[in-house]
Amino acid sequence: MTATNVQDKAISHLVSFFRKEWSGAFLAIIILAVAIELVTDGKPFFHPTNLMTILNNSAAIGVVAGGMTLVILAAGIDLSVGSVMGMVAAVTGYIVSYWGLPPWMAIMCGLALGALIGGIHGTLVAYIGMPAFIVTLAGLSVWRGSAHLSTGAQATPKLPDTFDLFGRYNPFSGLRADFKAGELSGFMEPIGAFIDAHWMGFFRTFQMSMIIFIVFFILLAVVISNMRIGRYIYAIGSNEQGSRQAGINTKMYTMYTYLICSMGAALGAMLFLGRAPYAKSDYGQMWELDAIAAVVIGGTSLFGGRGTVIGTFMGVILLKLINNGLTLAQLETFWQMVVTGLIILVAVGIDIVRQSKSAEKVQRMLGVVAVVLALFAALTPVSALVSSVINLHEHNSMVAMQLAGEKLAAYQNARLLDETALAALGATISDTWLMSLAMLALVAGGGFAAWRMDRSIAHVVSVLYFVVAIGLVFSGMAAAAPLLILGSFAMLGSSFVPYMFARARELNEA
Amino acid sequence: MNMKKLIGLVAAGAMMSGSVYADAIGYVTKSGTNAGWMMINQGAADAASEAGVDLITVGPSFQGDLSSQLEVFENLLAQGVKAIGIAPVDSSGIAPAVNDAMEAGVAVVAIDTGVNGADVTSFVATDNYAVAKVQGAVAATLVNDGDAIIYVTGNQAQSTGQERRNGFMEAFKTARPNSEILEVPTEWNSAQAQEGVEAILNSREDIKMVANAWDGGTMGAKAAMENLGLSAGDVKLVGFDGATDAIEAMEEGWVHADTAQMLYQMGYQGIKAAVEAAQGKDVAPRIDTGFFLVTPSTAGAYKDLIGIK
């Protein structure tokens, strides 16, 4: 095989990858995971138990988002999923704790309650013709209120072990216990020994949450891509009137999407109860936003007709990965909020550019990614510099006010600093101003390269990124260096985009 | 949202029968569904019925919503109540409205959370910062210097969350200067606590203790331990609030210390002060409702005190 051949193969793989709706979310997951890996110590981020923990904690919201995908594919929306999940969780826990119903019966009641609620929403939207936004917004309020009313907003005692089957139950734990008790014989014994030896490193987090989550998505994906209901949902989402004229019972299938969505919320409630300390009616607040975000991040259009179930899976993983990773990285609370939003923007941005299928836009986007990365890296010195300058300025202003004879309020007094604090501020400023300036210049350079889209400028800026990254390592800010190295690659990659597009087109024609 | 409807009903009812409520006391709570707040609200209701006054209880549509709390506060003023007990969701945000009320001659008693930037008739609360320092000092005795621990924070945009975190950190770091403290940020949400604690406990096996800013976090941390197959005592738990479920978990060996606020007392004393102020009596400007350090040896006494069976 020749070098060009390998290159062509790579290009065609890349093209077919980016044809997938979920490529934006997938790429964001990979980039984020690498970044977290670089900044955290302790057990590696890519450790299987950590990945399984993320899957376990994605299960409940994931199933909810899976149901939401169908509604959005059919050009609807369901704002009530969080409340429905909370109500089903609370009511199921309540009847099992206080009515003495066997757990399985209570679970069936909970799922039936989900179906009933979905049926009501679907009927109002599809047959009565009320706007989905309004019906489910009302549902958001009604079901939350009903949940609080029916359970007195009190937490239940700990739920029976049956609920663990939806959550923390580990299918290997029995085998391990038998092995430890020495009750295994024959070929089962080495299996038990293997499980016990790899318990902490792998099997500990292999739990039902994760298994149900994955099986649910496989089933949903099979149903959507192979069965009539899936095709009809896409058809309704892209052109409802046309579908009706083609003889599809659009009302019935629209109703089904809400029914499935609420049942997904009910199943999500069971999965949540399997990991939660007790059942309570305030579970699932704001989940509607997380579920919608996961669907959209996964490349599904809010206008319906376009998207995939697998994309939603990726979207959920990305959201939970952000939570998990930022917690492990011990990023400050308020920064976590900012960074979460920015990552979502980047994931959806990749998706928008991907759809445009234009070399120029892809090139520009890679340039912008490089600029954003430089900006993130610049935050380390610049935020220290800016906050020091602001603190100093506030101190000086308060001193001036004091001299002018004004009486300072308590929170104004708190802005006054003592000698050591002032000296520390001065030291921070003199330490960081040069690096801050260099980083901001780099951001400007990246911006210039992204704007001009000139090959040699991109190459020069890419090298500059690398040089500054090394500079960062030597000035004690090594944590930000990986961002710049990533940016360097993005900048370098952007210059090859037009060539790759041209070659992909040739390959396509050949 | 359901709360909002309730408020609407109350407001409509009050407007139709304005004179009936002339001697009523307004009570603006922070939450009607949080276990701790339900105890405070109970205390408030009992104080009002003992004094024989009507208590108009209203709250924000969800925990932490300043704008709807301002709205219900002004509705109460418009109804002409004599005194208002309020648990501000935002210490500074509520200040202008409190100022207006005080100028109009309505007594305002702040409950649980203080008002920043306005004078109130009385401030009835546990000193969160002081109690959190006790929590930090007690937590320090449960681990050795150098052990890594997790601290589950409350909402860091609210003074209660900030004071509890600052108090804990200060006392714990003084006693155990070489210990690493990993933080799990939450907005008073036990699911966030469970996920965060689970992530860290799974990635680090050297964590010895999880301290929490409130007992919802304690129960979330306990669920995280159960999810990872840990048993009671493998990682020590330290709580804040003295909620019933945390005390039960203490008896099972999960929780090792809990600084309980006298929640019921907070509501009771707060409304009592408001009633007295409305009747023109003098009220102390700061009423500290104290706290109770619950450990396995004092759990029984605490349960008797607050009436858990």
Number of helices of chain A: 21
Poorly predicted spans of chain B: 8-22
Helix residue percentage of chain B: 40-55%
Shape call of chain A:
globular
Rg of Cα set of chain A: 27 Å
Q: Give helix % range of chain A.
A: over 70%
The CATH C-level class name of the largest domain in chain B: Alpha Beta
Radius of gyration of chain B: 20 Å
CATH level 3 topology of the largest domain in chain B: Rossmann fold
Multimeric organization: heterodimer
Give the distance, in angstroms, between the N- and C-terminal Cα atoms of chain A.
Answer: 18 Å
Q: Label the structural class of chain A.
A: mainly alpha
CATH architecture tag of the largest domain in chain A: Orthogonal Bundle
Number of domains of chain A: 2
CATH first level of the largest domain in chain A: which class?
Mainly Alpha
Strand arrangement within the widest β-sheet of chain B reads 2-1-3-4-5-11
User: What form of chain B results from the Cα inertia axes?
Assistant: elongated
